[in-house]
Amino acid sequence: MKWKRKANRRPLTETRKIIHIDMDAFFASVEQRDNPELRGKPIAVGGSKMRGVVAAASYEARVFGVRSAMPSVTARRLCPELIFVKSSFDKYRAVSDQIREIFYSYTDLVEPLSLDEAYLDVTETLRGPASATLIAQAIRQEIFEVTQLTASAGVSFNKFLAKVASDINKPNGMKVIMPAEAPAFLAALSVEDFHGIGKVTAARMHKMGFRTGADLLKLSEVEMAQRFGKVGRHYYRIVRALDDRPVNPNRNRKSVGAERTYSDDIGTLSEMMEKTDWLAEKIHQYLVERDNFGRTVTLKMKSPEFVIHTRSRSFSGEVRKLDDLKETAYQLLRENIDEVPIVRLLGLSVSNLEREGGEGVQLLLPFEEE
């Protein structure tokens, strides 16, 4: 499905109307929608009882602490009644296309972040009311009518606040942050609730005595950089609601990657090469379709003990041929087979793309399951 897109040339000084839409437990909700027997039960999409990684967890599973990217063994231990459901990425893509059709009926300025979330600039709209709040409500209602799935929304005047707001009243909720409300909202916000501040950084901030936005506001930009490095300057801006990033409908990717967890450990070089062939073909197809190739190839290997090893090789020019991509992966495997003789997961990615920008994309591939 292709949509018309235009550049966002709106002056940065003009107040924008930004919506961040985030589907609620998207993969799991699709599976529960399509299988009534799964409704109201804790389910995990992807993985299996003993192998793999959880791709998504229903809200019933999240009550027990089950989260995406969690090893299946850990998820099963937290929730003994957890039901593992095989992933159906073609189906998820089809539903995502339905949702994006709704987005593009309101504005050309849509920046998808993944299959289940996107930013929309509705300062000027193709249809609907002038109010961003009313548009967000209408979009959520249309999504439900078309897909029978719920979405949460954040509405504000910049992307950072819209993203944070969309998490406030999940699931199936909405939060609006007006310009006059932003200073008090950010001052009261816990540091761990700032989008982009992870658990490790939040713990570090707590040790320094910074627990809320009000605490961070006490630091100058130089002091922020001294304590947190370059990202400190970003923290300085966001805690003051300074975010002039436009919604970018033509965002390019910094990297393209694919990985797969296997139902049985792999312990031979020939089998590893066979598996990387499949990953390379998926990545190369994506790069060819977008005519955007990269100069760095990275191999990811996860041992049965969950230790991750990554090895990269960079070239002066772009890796354009599939055979060259495969051969580079083979070389990285051969050079590291002694260090990682057995793997439970293999991943491959291409970075240093010709046209870089935005974030990396991880291709959605099915887990190998029994």
UniProtKB/TrEMBL annotation:
Name of the protein: DNA polymerase IV
Record-stated family: Belongs to the DNA polymerase type-Y family.
Ranges for domain UmuC: 18-198
A family per Pfam: IMS_HHH
Upper lineage: Bacteria, Pseudomonadati, Bacteroidota, Saprospiria, Saprospirales
Species the sequence originates in: Neolewinella maritima
Function, in words: Poorly processive, error-prone DNA polymerase involved in untargeted mutagenesis. Copies undamaged DNA at stalled replication forks, which arise in vivo from mismatched or misaligned primer ends. These misaligned primers can be extended by PolIV. Exhibits no 3'-5' exonuclease (proofreading) activity. May be involved in translesional synthesis, in conjunction with the beta clamp from PolIII.
Annotated active site: 117
InterPro entries: DNA/RNA_pol_sf (IPR043502), DNA_pol_Y-fam_lit_finger_sf (IPR036775), DNA_pol_Y-fam_little_finger (IPR017961), DNA_polymerase-Y (IPR050116), DNApol_IV (IPR022880), PolY_HhH_motif (IPR024728), Rev_trsase/Diguanyl_cyclase (IPR043128), UmuC (IPR001126)
GO molecular function: DNA-directed DNA polymerase activity
